[in-house]
């Protein structure tokens, strides 16, 4: 309770919430929300499966609105994605939450293997490689060469974007 009061009080005093977030995480490590984690994992498996059915898991993949946890990018990493761009208007993920996302993505190797047709040991080996995410906040997608992305996906983000912005983004995508 008091930690929340102190944290929120500091947030209102200090500008640059990214630095404040890093500082707070040092004192209070990231705490997961299991229900949210389970749903993200379930929906992530569905997204990766759908990408696989379209022959897109091995290409260059862009996530719109990464948020805190990298479960879905890590599932794509396990499935053999060549390159993964993470985009957000705010830098919310950090080393702790990337580690958490990797752990979650490693919890269902059989399900992932069934969905993408890759052996479990290959999926696990891919997940143990160092992350090669290109994490962009702000997204700066105008800097990307045209036709350089094979797949764009997003989960629980589009409903947060103003309709006019969404129309512009959809044209760009
Ligand atoms: C509810 S969170 C979802 C995070 C993540 N996709 C997930 O499944 O847990 C929404 C995220 O979308 C991001 N966001 C909002 N507008 C955005 C935009 N125009 N471009 C990229 N990210 C955006 C927010 O900063 C936030 O991280």
Estimated structural class: alpha/beta
| Approximate shape | globular
Radius of gyration: 17 Å
Q: Which residues form runs of ≥5 with pLDDT under 50?
A: none
Percent range for β-strand residues: 5-15%
Helix content: 40-55%
Architecture per CATH nomenclature, i.e. the level-2 architecture of the largest domain? 3-Layer(aba) Sandwich
Ligands in the structure? S-adenosylmethionine
Order of strands across the main sheet: 3-2-1-4
Give the helices and strands, then pairings.
Elements: H1 2-13, H2 17-27, H3 34-53, E1 60-64, H4 71-78, E2 83-87, H5 95-105, H6 109-116, H7 120-128, E3 133-136, E4 151-153, H8 163-172
Parallel strand pairs: 1-2, 1-4, 2-3
Bound molecules: S-adenosylmethionine.
Characterise the protein shown here.
The structure is a single chain. Helix 3 (34-53) packs parallel to helix 4 (71-78), helix 3 (34-53) packs parallel to helix 6 (109-116) and helix 4 (71-78) crosses helix 7 (120-128). The relative contact order is 0.16. The longest helix is centred in the N-terminal third of the chain and has 20 residues, at 34-53. The protein has helices spanning 2-13, 17-27, 34-53, 71-78, 95-105, 109-116, 120-128, 163-172; strands at residues 60-64, 83-87, 133-136, 151-153. The mean pLDDT is 90. Helix 4 (71-78) links the parallel strand 1 and strand 2 (83-87). The chain has 173 residues and is an alpha/beta fold. Strands 3-2-1-4 form a four-stranded parallel β-sheet, covered by helices on one side. The site of S-adenosylmethionine (SAM) has 17 residues, from loops.
């Amino acid at each position: 309770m008091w930690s929340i009061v102190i944290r929120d009080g500091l947030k209102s005093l200090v500008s640059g919430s990214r630095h404040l977030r890093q500082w707070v995480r040092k004192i209070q490590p990231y705490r997961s929300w299991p229900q949210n984690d389970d749903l993200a994992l379930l929906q992530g498996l569905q997204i990766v499966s759908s990408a696989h059915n379209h022959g897109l898991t091995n290409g260059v993949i862009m996530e719109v609105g990464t948020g805190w946890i990298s479960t879905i990018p890590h599932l794509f990493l396990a499935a053999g994605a060549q390159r993964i761009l993470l985009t957000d208007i705010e830098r919310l993920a950090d080393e702790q939450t990337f580690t958490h996302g990797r752990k979650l993505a490693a919890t269902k190797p059989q399900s992932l293997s069934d969905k993408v047709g890759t052996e479990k040991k290959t999926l696990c080996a891919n997940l143990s490689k160092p992350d090669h995410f290109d994490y962009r906040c702000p997204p700066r997608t105008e800097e990307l060469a045209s036709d350089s992305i094979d797949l764009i996906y997003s989960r629980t983000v589009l409903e947060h974007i103003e309709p006019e912005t969404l129309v512009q983004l959809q044209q760009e995508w």
